[in-house]
Design goal:
CATH topology of the domain at 695-932: Transferase(Phosphotransferase), domain 1
Strand order of the largest sheet: 1-2-4-6-8-10-12-14-16-18-20-22-24-26-28
Strand content: 15-25%
CATH class of the domain at 695-932: Mainly Alpha
Shape: globular
Organism: Camellia lanceoleosa
CATH architecture of the domain at 695-932: Orthogonal Bundle
Structural class: alpha/beta
Protein name: Leucine-rich repeat receptor-like protein kinase
Number of strands: 50
CATH superfamily of the domain at 695-932: Transferase(Phosphotransferase) domain 1
Mean pLDDT: 82
Length: about 950
């Protein structure tokens, strides 16, 4: 039998942190007042009467961590982050916690050496000691932590060399399962050992920025082909960049600036995923502007300040589709600057100060921030053109309100995005290597805000909304952002809510979209906790008062019974109207009865007005003949898209009811979901889920900033195919979409394809009939010619449109472009006897140069879908099976999502128009003469 002291851990056994110990923590939660910490102590979680988790982030705790911590032999999680008052050394006894998996001490005041005993924690997966004052060397014993996933020792005062293994001692080269090496902002010195890296490693982030490292960059770095972010900047590295760095094909962020690198500029041809590159302030050989830079299609940011570049800047550089920032100051660039007429829509800054540029070809409508100060074009004393003056940039941002502010908050409260006066939990987000440089793009903040809300809600935390503000780049090139998290259900958090939110951020449970890169969070102390003790006191007081006045209330209640019954009846009538807005229709309306809905709910006009901030223009994300589409935010934080009919295009009540009945039955992960509708105050609105990454058309054209390689295109093809297959064969009743096109395929946060816009859809008729006779509607280029000629709509009409979509996927061309029809162009160009069917000139250049396994079968499938006769086309079920086969040829799992999380795609997402209505300028509804529909 266990001894009593082993069954229940008393406060004395928690002497590491109890109020009775010599080095006691102070400002511990008030609930720490009993003998049993497993009873009701805030921040303590137990299993079988043993403490297994201590989570006290942002609690304002002060004191030291003593060796008594070793008594908690079952402890698995220790998170004391964001308590600056926790000081002193980390005790060597920490190594006795053999079951510890998460040791998180971010943003505290710990100092001294990191004990070597930390290498005894064999179960450790998360080791975050960043943003403290630790000194001395990195313990070599960390190399023994074979299960380690996250290693963050950044922003301390660590010194010495990087430890690697020898015959008798461990080292960091043994961490083959670790994904993150974060050692920036320390005082590490010596060479980066060549032994540190090997081909067995699975690192994705290597951050050694702002140290005192010297010597050359080891060529073994090129063996770690999983690497995505590399920061070696702000050191004293010398010698040439190893040529095999180009083996790092998945690199998205490369920082080599502020070193002493020499030799030729590294040729980064083939780094097709590279977003952000900074090679500034090195002593490379004098060279002309490298032509391979203009081929980096994913580049958002090019920084090569003081790198001894000379000659002309090619016009092609500025047409890179995602390019946002070009900084080439303090070089020897010359000639006349010409950015061309097709420069990137994303381009915001060109900084060429202090070069030898003699002229600038001004283009009509050019509005990019251009800096040519210190060039001959500005004259010896400075020119008068705007580009001869350095303008102050303004990248201010604050999350907009979702409502109209009607109340003034107290001085100690803050108004939330939903206009509630509350006490938020606050802190600062630091993103160490974002893949974008434009801080003025509001969509990046919306994406991050939604990602945060999704993470908090998925962990069932009491969060109503989040607000982001004050974006900036600090001196370390980190993207810094203020965060406010607002409570749900009351105006302040309790302790459980605060340390739960803090743990999601400190434990790296929250995974931001990949364009934000690795991050850390520093939380502020929270002092406005909901007072549970005060609540109990108020409850007791209320009981006493209630007993005193109870007798007189009984008399009054007898008079109120009639009023209460009347009000309940009125309330029930109003509730019935809300739940069944069609119930008030009279027989003359011929409504056919109450709509039979499956999952869709009724929204009142006032609700949608509030969710869209009175249908503000800022929330208008699309428009067309039907009306407008607005973005809205539900009280839960979920984004929605609201399709609002304009007066002239509203349907009759019966037709509107029929449409929502049909759409409410559609439930599939590859079909955009109808969440509800509004039939109130003369309005007709449909409420859909909001799909964050825009349309497939936007991504193919480069407007979305999402990079579509061959693998992603296959996943999008299978997603769209499965959505359409569901509509044809599994929906009840089956549905013919009638307007399949790239603008009606939306991409969610995981880049899964979703079929959208049912404005032209038709339920299939009698199964024996096989078609629906209807007026021809659709979009030019996608329209089935057989359907147009016969006016008999079948599911094979959707198959034809899908075949055109497949050709659009591999060419990134619109179906009809410059008078040429994509189907005819492919058929004319292709030669099955040649590689890739001889389609090199037609294929999207973004996928050329990569392995295109299965492309020929993909083309065969697309052309079978666009056969002139419908009977010769496959069904969508057959299409799905064929795409699955092609994916297997390409080495893909057909059943995996496009990305394992919203973090796993590259590219800077932007604001998108969402085609939930029939807003296409080229939709056909019988208005075009037949000659306009014939393929050219």
């Amino acid at each position: 039998m266990e001894k009593p002291s082993e069954m229940f851990l008393s406060s004395s056994q928690l002497s590491c942190c109890s109020k009775g110990s010599q080095n006691a923590w102070t400002y511990t939660p008030p609930s720490w007042d009993g003998l049993d910490p497993c009873g009701s102590w805030d921040g303590i979680q137990c299993t079988n009467s043993h403490v297994t988790s201590i989570q006290l982030a942002s609690m304002g705790v002060t004191g030291q961590l003593t060796g008594d911590i070793q008594q908690l032999s079952e402890l698995q999680i220790l998170d004391l982050s964001y308590n600056k008052g926790l000081t002193g050394p980390l005790p060597t006894a920490i190594g006795n916690l053999q079951k510890l998996t998460n040791l998180i001490l971010v943003g505290c005041g710990f100092s001294g050496l990191i004990p070597d005993t930390i290498g005894s924690l064999q179960q450790l997966r998360i080791l975050s000691l960043n943003s403290n004052s630790f000194i001395g060397p990195i313990p070599p014993s960390i190399g023994n932590l074979s299960n380690l996933y996250w290693l963050d020792l950044a922003d301390n005062k660590l010194s010495g060399t990087i430890p690697v293994s020898s015959g008798t001692t461990p080292g960091l080269d043994m961490l083959v399962n670790t994904k993150h090496f974060h050692f920036g902002k320390n005082q590490l010195s010596g060479k980066i050992p060549s032994q540190l890296f090997n081909s067995k490693m699975t690192l994705i982030h290597v951050l050694f920025d702002s140290n005192q490292l010297s010597g050359s960059i080891p060529s073994t770095l090129g063996l770690v082909q999983t690497l995505e972010v590399l920061r070696l900047d702000r050191n004293s590295l010398s010698g040439p960049v190893p040529p095999n760095i180009t083996n790092l094909m998945h690199i998205s962020d490369l920082y080599l600036s502020n070193n002493q690198l020499t030799g030729p500029l590294p040729n980064l041809t083939g780094m097709n995923f590279l977003n952000y590159m900074d090679l500034s302030n090195n002593t490379f050989d004098v060279s002309n502007f490298p032509p391979w830079l203009s081929a980096l299609q994913s580049l958002t940011t090019l920084v090569m300040e003081n790198t001894r570049l000379q000659g002309l800047i090619p016009v092609a550089l500025f047409s890179l589709p995602q390019l946002q920032t070009v900084v080439l100051s303090y070089n020897q660039l010359s000639g006349t600057l010409d950015v061309g007429s097709s420069y990137s829509n994303e381009l915001q800054l060109i900084d060429l100060q202090n070069n030898s540029i003699v002229g600038f070809t001004q283009r009509a409508g050019f509005s990019i921030d251009l800096i040519l100060v210190g060039n001959p074009v500005c004259g010896g004393t400075g020119g008068t053109e705007t580009y001869c003056v350095i303008q102050q940039s303004n990248s201010s941002y604050s999350t907009p309100k979702n409502c109209i502010q009607t109340t003034t908050c107290r001085s100690d409260q803050i108004s939330s995005p939903n206009c509630r006066c509350e006490y938020p939990y606050t802190g600062t987000l630091f993103f160490r290597a974002p893949s974008f440089s434009s801080l003025g793009n509001g969509s990046i903040y919306t994406i991050l805000q939604n990602s945060l809300m999704n993470s908090f809600q998925s962990h069932q935390l009491p969060v109503d909304s989040v607000s982001l503000s004050n974006p900036s780049k600090n001196s370390d090139d980190y993207f810094v952002l203020s965060l406010e998290v607002f409570p749900s259900g009351q105006d302040r958090f309790n302790r459980t809510g605060v340390y739960g939110i803090a743990f999601v951020l400190s434990n790296q449970t929250f995974k931001p979209p990949k364009m934000f890169g690795p991050f850390f969070f520093i939380g502020d102390p929270y002092s406005s906790f909901a007072d549970s003790a005060g609540t109990k006191k108020s409850t007791n007081t209320g009981i006493i008062i209630g007993a005193a006045v109870g007798g007189s209330v009984l008399v009054i209640l007898s008079l109120l019974v009639g009023i209460y019954a009347f009000r309940q009846k009125r309330k029930a009538e109003r509730a019935d109207k809300v739940n069944n807005p069609f119930a008030s229709w009279g027989p003359s309306n011929s409504s056919g009865g109450v709509p039979q809905l499956k999952g869709a709910r009724f929204f009142s006009f006032e609700e949608l007005k509030q969710y869209t901030n009175n249908f503000s223009e800022a929330n208008n994300i699309g428009s067309g003949g039907y009306g407008k589409v607005y973005r809205g935010t539900l009280p839960t934080g979920q984004l929605i898209a609201i399709k609002r009919a304009q007066q002239g295009s509203m349907q009759g009540g019966v037709e509107f009811k029929t449409e929502i009945e049909l759409l409410s039955r559609v439930h599939h992960k590859n079909v955009v979901s109808l969440l509800g509708f509004c039939f109130d105050q003369g309005e007709q609105m449909l409420v859909y889920e909001y799909v964050p990454n825009g349309t497939l058309m936007e991504s193919l054209s480069g407007k979305s900033g999402i990079r579509l390689d061959w693998m992603r295109r296959l996943r999008m093809a299978i997603g769209a195919a499965r959505g359409l297959h569901y509509l044809h064969e599994l929906a009840d009743p089956p549905i013919i979409h009638r307007d399949i096109k790239s603008n009606n395929i939306l991409l969610d946060e995981r880049l899964n394809a979703k079929v959208a816009d049912f404005g032209l859809s038709k339920p299939m008729g009698d199964a024996g009939k096989g078609h629906v006779s209807t007026q021809v509607k659709g979009t030019m280029g996608y329209l089935d010619p057989e359907y147009y000629m016969s006016q008999q709509l079948t599911e094979k009409s959707d198959v034809y449109s899908f075949g055109v979509l497949l050709l659009e996927l591999i060419t990134a061309r619109q179906p009809i472009e410059k008078g040429k029809y994509i189907v005819r162009e492919v058929r004319t160009q292709m030669d099955k006897e040649k590689v890739l069917y001889n389609l090199h000139e037609i294929l999207d250049r973004a996928i050329l140069g990569t392995t295109l396994k299965g492309l020929e079968k993909f083309v065969d499938l697309a052309l079978s879908c666009v056969e002139d006769e419908g009977v010769k086309r496959p069904t969508m079920g057959e299409v799905v099976k064929e795409i699955e086969t092609i994916m297997q040829i390409a080495g893909l799992n057909p059943n995996a999502d496009s990305a394992t999380s919203s973090a796993n795609y590259e590219g800077a997402s932007r604001e998108h128009n969402h085609p939930y209505g029939d807003e296409s300028l080229f939709s056909y509804s019988g208005a075009f003469p037949p000659s306009k529909l014939e393929p050219q």
